[in-house]
Design goal:
Layout lengths: L1 H11 L19 E6 L2 E6 L4 H7 L5 H13 L4 E5 L5 H7 L6 E5 L2 H11 L5 E5 L1 E2 L4 E8 L6 E4 L6 E5 L1 H7 L7 E6 L5 H6 L2 H7 L2 E6 L1 H7 L3 H7 L5 E7 L5 E6 L3 H10 L10 E7 L3 H10 L3
Parallel strand pairs: 3-4, 3-10, 4-5, 6-9, 10-11
Antiparallel strand pairs: 1-2, 7-8, 7-9, 11-14, 12-13, 12-14
Helix pairs in contact: 3-4, 3-12
Length: 301
């Protein structure tokens, strides 16, 4: 026991924890579990790593809930769009902090089945089963981690075709394009900045806070240049940018104008050599500098 404590302290420095695997059916998609996320218990399939993740890191993603609360205070009629909603864990996290209306979008059919079931636990949650992209098109892809963390890899050699739509088009089709979108969260395994480019109408209309994963490893695999999209947001009135590590701790707060700093952060988290595998990035419009300050105060920045 003493040795385990010593080892845990050492690996905790790197953001890891030594745990004993429990017997059971974890890993079996035909089994489901009730998992405590925030103040709620939601249903997850046994193959979803979030089953264990929330057991070991119960406060995972709580910063997003706090951010939604800050935004809701300033904009009482605001909506959150949750892209890559998985089984609905972000909904549970956010709803545990503030009862903001949520549009949850998930393309994977298996995950969406659990998402639509879990959404019934909450008020004002609208679900959409759709993969999003930069433009509306049919694309040949290779899918990895299907049913729990679907990663789409475009290919020219295969038979798996999917239909991508832009966020702007999907909202119009579901008669949701006029809601006051003030927070967009994206977790799309490398497609995040691609999806942002397909949400330009929504971004220009509502100037939402943008909170998304920046996964260099996946982006490099699909040939996505995320930096260009980050820098282009300054043309739409965005300025303040916060880089959070994979445990939601703020590493750096700067301006989009500081391209050298952002380039260095981009270079570091390549998913291979750095101790931080990916970032969560939060970008604020110039009109929401007050929200940025309040959010960063929570992170002691």
């Amino acid at each position: 026991m003493f040795i385990k404590k010593i080892l845990n302290k050492l690996v905790n420095i790197l953001g890891y924890k030594i745990v004993k695997n429990k017997p059971g059916n974890h890993g079996n998609p035909s089994k489901s579990y009730q998992v405590k996320v925030g103040n709620y218990y939601i249903t997850m399939p046994g193959n979803n790593p979030l089953v264990k993740h929330y057991e070991y890191f119960p406060n995972y993603n709580i910063e997003l809930g706090k951010l939604a609360q800050i935004i809701s205070k300033k904009y009482p009629d605001s909506y959150l769009i949750d892209i890559g909603a998985n089984v609905g864990d972000t909904i549970a996290v956010v709803k545990s902090v503030v009862n903001i209306p949520i549009i949850a979008i998930e393309g994977d059919q298996f995950s969406y089945k659990f998402l639509s079931q879990n959404a019934l636990l909450f008020d004002e949650v609208h679900t959409i089963n759709q993969f999003l992209g930069e433009k509306s098109e049919k694309k040949m892809i290779k899918a990895e981690k299907e049913g729990w963390n679907t990663t789409l890899i475009p290919t020219t050699n295969g038979s798996n075709w999917i239909t991508l739509k832009t966020l702007d088009e999907s909202l119009k089709e579901n008669k949701l394009s006029s809601v006051n979108t003030k927070l967009i969260k994206i977790d799309a395994e490398g497609f995040d900045t691609i999806i942002l480019r397909g949400a330009l109408d929504t971004i220009l209309k509502f100037s939402p806070v943008l909170y998304f994963e920046y996964n260099r490893e996946n982006m490099d695999i699909i040939g996505e240049d995320g930096l260009a999209t980050l820098f282009s947001l300054s043309e739409s009135g965005y300025d303040n940018i916060a880089f959070l590590d994979n445990h939601n701790r703020c590493l750096m707060y700067t301006s989009l104008a500081q391209k050298d700093i952002i380039q260095q952060l981009h270079n570091y988290a390549d998913g291979i050599h750095g101790l931080i595998p990916h970032y969560d990035i939060c970008i604020f419009h110039k009109t929401d500098s007050d929200i940025a300050r309040e959010f960063l105060n929570l992170n002691n920045i």
